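cron nightly-structures :: item 1 of 1
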Amino acid sequence: MSLNPSPGSLTGSVIGENGQPIIRATVQVFDITNGLVSTAITNNFGQYAISGLTPGNYRVVFSAPGFERLAAGSTILANESTILNVQLDSLFATISGTVINAQTSTPIAGASVTIRYQSASGPLVVTALTNSLGQFVIGGITEGEISAVATASGFGSQGLSGVVVAGQTLTFNFQLLQQSAIIQGKVTNNATGEDLTNTRIRVINNLGVVIATTQTDINGNYFIPDLSPGFYQVVALNVNFEAQTQDITLVPNQVGIVNFSLLGNPATLNGRVIDNETGLPIVGALVEVFDASGVPIAFGLTNQNGQYIIEGLPQGLLSVRASAPGYNSITEQIEFVPNQKSKKSFP
């Protein structure tokens, strides 16, 4: 076990739209591999503090009963305290539905339903389990485009997408087939052959929905079970290398092998997202990068200053889309070259 000698910290406050502090709000910090790093609860003043964070870029998810969930970005620096203040709205959407066995029409208890918001390939904000009747209800969903994925052991997962409206309920009914496949593989450094640990792997279906996310182990290996037969795109992202995408078509009971050999000298994108009328920063705006085939490679979330950063990008002409609840999305194309830092602000 090794300890980071120069950690940073994250502090801030969580308030409602009336400016009042939200007590006992949950603050979760995730790293780029989607690993949960730390959790905190706000005090009687709506304040939170999280220390001992390794320097780097994080996704922070805020939630509280009776309020929307919000995901925002944060960059932690060594020996510094980063501030992230957010406001949660009390008007939100709800997602409900069922997960059943497609062959027998019987409910599947304990199935996992995960929600991504602002985009079918956006950040993961919440996971729920079905009850004994195969039912689930998830509140606190920010309005806009979302995706939902149902997964259960021994079944092929299913991903759906839709648009939710604040104050309304959107229903997703999943029918899972008792036939599944597996994707596994290894990620290495193209220059040295070295195994690459903590590389994020995302599996995307033909609808553009992220079906599964995992990370490589200390030997550079990854394993993703319970996938439905069909066509997928697999994306490997490591911030110190160029992201790479590969396609695979799975048949029932297949173990598909997808290995990656990543190139060094990745590109980086940073900038700000602001309100075009007021000039104020938009907190929690989503900035996504897509390749020439429309595959979502990476994303970043804005912090309280409207700033974002996306690392590990490949070279070439890529599409960059900025979106936020209540705003029209903007998409532009940017040419990336190895080891270059590009800047793009919206609008």
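cron nightly-structures :: done
The two ends are 45 Å apart (CA to CA).
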